[in-house]
Design brief:
Blueprint: H1 12-29, H2 31-38, E1 53-58, E2 64-67, E3 70-73, E4 82-87, E5 91-96, E6 99-105, E7 116-118, H3 121-130, H4 141-144, H5 148-160, H6 163-180, H7 183-195, H8 202-208, H9 227-243, H10 247-259, H11 263-279, H12 283-310, H13 331-339, E8 349-353, H14 360-373, E9 378-382, H15 383-395, H16 399-405, E10 411-415, H17 424-437, E11 442-447, H18 461-473, E12 475-479, H19 485-496
């Protein structure tokens, strides 16, 4: 690369040709030794060896998944499903069970460490139609545009119109390209409008790419004689008689599936069997469909269990969190933390500091919800409540078992740690909990006091230093020093609320 003078290549094939050339020159120097080795080489195996990495991912509510610090979009119908992904050097092949679904282009994270994005606008256009303004602050907006013309249109509309109208128009253009399958032709029309100094008009372009009624072919329907349907009915009755499931066999299958604890298959096997008979499925496809339904149902039930045990406060999501009100927080960094694999696997911590009302608990709960949706186990609790439970366990000589039971949670969210009273019994169990999870399991802690004030929580100075040292060793720290949201909302309500006319003082009443 140094001799070449650049690390930039036109495409993947150009990079592969460069690698082949370098390897060929190196092999040329060792040609004699390679010839000696070649005589001892055996023939290649008949079946191709595995040249991919396989993993399981869960499609989140954002209609995508994150793999190796790259976000991939998929059709929204797959939200909640667990996909089996084969990761090649240039592509991803996605399977639902054993059924191939789609092939995606392989993406790579940015050299700065930020997440990469492989996004198909067709996967997210339906969500953008409902909320066009989401396009304005979309993290992967540049990757969303299928061609340069759409990005040019968005930039020109932002410069010449309001943000709201620009987002509506561009989302409408993407929807038009999707609905009419005219992505390339529409891009040419947009470029022509921009080159002429005009902003693209959605209504005009919609009429240009509307279906041409004159081009519709005349269709003649030949109605078959009715007596042919009588013959068809006879054939179907004979075929159905062969395919009817014996009631005894059906009852036996129900018992066996219940014994094997396969409730999803128990619910759908009869309808799938009828469909398989009707469409002539091979046995492998029928079994794969049953297994896919069971896996999907188990994933759904697992998500329900994890959400119930997480005890997250309702309504706290990343979508409802106002990042503009907390400008010190990077939305991209928060979305990266929501994936979880970069820090939960290493037992790292997340610490949120700020005054009351700054959104610490909201952000902690929203991250917890996103992590649960991505397959992690989370527990949200007020620190005082957990400390009290651990104190009871200590009195019953079961503290070690109680702390070990919390190990099943990848993330433990301790809300309002500063409200723990300065009591030796309380702070000692909290210290043991933090020490037990150090470099093993992650903690997310919210506090309205900086580290310098934690001497008010822990009575012993040495214990305070030990706790802080363990927490910050592998930690991401957010300082959310903003005005209280609750106070700001109360002031806005007070300003907007006038005195009702019925109670107004008038000269007649004076």
């Amino acid at each position: 690369m140094l001799l070449r003078g650049s690390r930039d290549f036109d495409d993947l094939q150009a990079y592969r040709r460069f690698v082949d050339e370098v390897v060929g020159r190196r092999n040329a120097r060792d040609r004699k030794r390679l010839d000696l080795e070649r005589s001892a080489l055996q023939s290649l195996p008949q079946r191709r060896t595995t040249d991919y990495e396989e993993t399981i991912v869960t499609v989140t509510s954002t209609s995508g998944f994150i793999l190796k610090k790259v976000f991939y979009s998929v059709p929204s119908r797959l939200i909640g499903h667990r996909l089996r992904v084969r990761l090649y050097d240039d592509r991803l092949e996605c399977f639902l069970g054993s059924t191939p679904l789609t092939t995606l282009r392989r993406g790579w994270p940015h050299s700065s460490g930020k997440h990469g994005h492989v996004v198909d606008y067709r996967h997210v256009i339906h969500a953008l139609r409902r909320k066009p303004m989401a396009l304005l602050n979309l993290v992967y907006r540049e990757q969303l545009f299928p061609r340069r013309a759409y990005q040019r249109a968005f930039e020109a509309l932002l410069a010449g119109d309001s943000e709201k109208q620009a987002c509506r128009t561009v989302v409408g253009l993407l929807a038009l390209a999707h609905d009419r399958a005219c992505e390339a032709e529409l891009a040419e029309a947009i470029n022509a409008e921009l080159d002429a100094g005009r902003l693209p008009d959605l209504d005009t372009l919609g009429r240009c790419f509307a279906p041409n009624p004159a081009a519709m072919p005349d269709i003649t329907v030949e109605v078959a004689p009715l007596h042919l349907y009588d013959e068809l009915s006879t054939v179907q009755l004979v075929s159905a008689a062969w395919r009817t499931t014996d009631p005894g066999d059906a009852a036996r299958i129900e018992l066996l599936l219940a014994e094997l604890r396969l409730p999803a298959i128990k619910l759908v096997w009869a309808s799938l069997a009828a469909q398989a008979d009707k469409e002539g499925w091979p046995a492998a496809r029928f079994l794969a469909s049953l297994a896919e339904h069971e896996i999907a149902e188990r994933s759904r039930r697992r998500l329900e269990r994890h959400l119930a045990e997480a005890r997250l406060p309702p309504g706290k999501t990343l979508d409802s969190f106002d990042f503009e009100a907390v400008p010190v927080i990077s939305k991209a960094q928060v979305m990266a933390l929501a994936a979880g694999d970069a820090w939960l696997n290493n037992g790292a911590n997340l610490l949120l500091f700020g005054p009351p009302g700054g959104g610490k608990s909201h952000l902690a709960a929203a991250l917890g919800l996103a992590l649960v949706e991505n397959g992690w186990r989370v527990l949200f609790t007020r620190t005082t409540d957990l400390v009290q439970r651990l104190q009871i366990a200590r009195r019953e000589l079961a503290l070690e078992a109680a702390i070990a039971k919390l190990d099943k949670f990848h993330l433990l969210i301790l809300d309002d740690i500063a409200y723990v009273t300065k009591d030796q019994a309380e702070t000692s169990v909290l210290f043991e909990l933090i020490s037990a999870r150090y470099e093993r399991r992650s903690l997310l802690i919210t506090a309205n006091q900086p580290f310098g004030e934690w001497g008010k929580i822990f009575p012993d100075q040495a214990m305070t230093v030990a706790v802080v040292d363990r927490l910050v060793h592998h930690a991401t720290i957010f300082e959310m020093n903003v005005e209280s949201y609750r106070r700001r909302a109360a002031l806005e309500r007070k300003r907007g609320r006038g005195r009702p006319p019925i109670h107004a003082t008038t000269a007649a009443n004076a």
